[in-house]
Amino acid sequence: MSATNVDSALNTKSAASSHVEHEEEEDHRMFGFVVFLLSESVIFFSFFVGYIVFKTSSENWLPAGFEGLEVREPLINTIVLVSSSFVIYFAERFLHKENLWGFRIFWLLTMAMGSYFLYGQAVEWQGLPFGFTSGVFGGVFYLLTGFHGLHVLTGVLLQGVMLGRSFLPNNYEGGEYGVAATSLFWHFVDVIWIMLFVLIYVWK
Amino acid sequence: MSSASVEVRPSETPPSFQPEPGAPDNWRRFFSFSTDHKVIGIQYIVTAFIFFLLGGLLAMVMRGELITPDADLVDRTVYNGLFTMHGTIMLFMWTFPMLNGLANYLVPLQIGARDMAFPRLNAAAFWLVPVFGVILVVSFFVPGGPSQSGWWAYPPVSLQNPTGNLVNGQALWLLAVALSGISSIMGAVNIVTTIFRMRAPGMGWFKMPAFCWTVFSAQMIQLIGLPALTAGAVMLLLDLTVGTSFFDPTRGGDPILYQHFFWFYSHPAVYVIVLPIFGVFSEVFPVYARKPLFGYKVVVVSSLLITGLSLVVWVHHMFASGTPSWMRMLFMFTTMAISIPTGIKVFAWVATVWGGKLRLTSAMLFALGGLMTFLFAGITGIMLSSAPFDIHVNNTYFVVGHFHYVINGAVVMGFYAAIYHWFPKMTGRMYYEGLGKLHFALTFIGINLIFLPMHPLGLMGMPRRVASYDPEFAFWNVIASLGGFLLGVSTLPFILNMLSSWNFGKDAGDNPWRAIGLEWMVPSPPPHENFEEIPVIVSPPYGYGSDEPLTSNNPNGESIDEPLPGIAIGGAAV
Fold first, then answer.
1. Which of B77, B93, B177, B325 is a good FRET partner for B441, with 20 to 30 A between their CA atoms?
2. A77-114: per-residue pLDDT in tens?
3. B567 is in which domain, residue-wise?
4. What share of chain B is helix, strand, coil (3-state, %, to 5)?
5. What pTM value is reported for the model?
6. Number of domains in chain B
7. Which residues of B fall within a CB distance of 8 Å from A135?
8. ipTM score for this prediction
């Protein structure tokens, strides 16, 4: 067969297959992100295991003169954070229906609730009579809440980026991977918080 | 035929695709932020090998110190730094990046994909390697020298920080290990996603080459285990720098907990290292024995069994750490159980080689040598799994000997087997067989000469990690040191071979070994995006001796009216 024939045939073939590939990449990213989150969760589980070991084996668990953590304020915080998971779900629904303003309002509400959570956390930290060097309890308390707080902060920042992107024309033509991933991350941060809350605040 | 395909190659790149910096044969692409998995694979391998030489140099200084019973060549604190950095460099800078390099190069080719799932993430993961490599090397020059607490950095030794500086060897060590963890997780997400989602049409799980199976199993361990080490390292770093007391026993902390975090990852890490080498053995033996891999399905499922079991054996590193006896019994049992899937693999390789038409090329020699040393390591491993024996030889050279038979015996020899096997594919040129065989002889003798004497030394009670020793241990130590220097010399013919063959070697052709596999059906070196046409798989791998074609189309993009060398190779092989 002549070289020119091969040439043209190849051109059409590879152009077609590369088109298919680019569409598939969307799915790969979500799959990869889920794999990453599963792996990330092991860090939290390791910290949880550390917390359980410390709590069950330590002789002087709470710092001297400290009675125990206040539950009321953190509970309000918890309710706000958990509710925000529903709010972000509605934001996603609006985006699917291509109602951009509905999406933005609910998305912004999620950001506000996340920020309130961070604010509540900071207020709680300020009022505590112990620091991260006050024994194992102090260390593990600030480690867990701080590491989780970093994730909430990351989530809020990601949401900010996605909010900004929603104003770009044609942003969602290639799919809504960014929004879906941010939302999934937010649910993940929520679920981790519920476990963390039970471990630190509920388990006496 | 091949000249025609060379001519049309420039126009085959679709216009929508980002062009690579420089032409495909431009050496500068190896120094660029390339997103081509083949370039990244070679970048990984070469970078890792440079660190392998550095780690080996440290080992030779240690063997120089140990050639006499007194601490005379280097200071004791320098010796502490030497064994710490030797272990750290060999694990985090050599084996992990080297295996990531092999996986990067081979997995997309073997599963019929054009690249990895996330090419840019791939490049970013690689470029972290030199970053934390430099951090580790820099730690030699900070006040107080590098970390001296061994590659496992047990507290409270690792918390001492004698210089009192915030930037000390131990902190830099933890930083480097954390960055290595980030890089490994990036790589693992990428590789797992690629294998899960980008296999060519028709390539079901049981039509996938064994190397991809082992890489997949190993990367699953990274995803599950590595975060635990990260958690422990974060807590240790906080203890060291900001004054928390997680692992400080004088302030209520629990140093044993660190050991659990550490070994929960770092024991399975040994399987992260050795599993892909099992994959290399499973690829190499069928090619040079001209037989299908014996018990393919059982072999690949064993990889997953090893993944599962490897996550529940870590306490066997802590038999002497005041572990309760129920835990000792439990982990003794699981550790012995893991020898079953491993033994299955060994039997399958022996059965593959048995009665085959052997071609003793350098790759085959290294694979056979690696198999032998691995078998020996496996036997000492079963001895060590028994808690009473383990406590007897705990912290002696027996453990060092066992471990190095796995890592230097099986893994490094397996690496050399892989390089000799795929070198023609990577470069398009043949290596010099004579130099390869010389390399094998020196390596095999060197490994046994250095590591075999460590077993009697350990049984006699010589402790590891000490610069001086009782004169009664001198005989075996002199032999081991000579073996160590021989092992150092053995890398010279390899380096010479690689450099000269890459530049002046004979043209290799697409499939010099007459091997069956997708990577052997494309030109050498494979073009950008690997396949002109995504292959459609119709047969299981390793169809040696059968006439079934591997694919129903030709990934080279040409029609298959006439039989092609890459297809139905089995007939030609007999």
1. B93
2. 999 999 999 999 999 999 999 899 999 999 999 999 99
3. 509-574
4. 65, 0, 30
5. 0.90
6. 2
7. 245, 251-252
8. 0.88
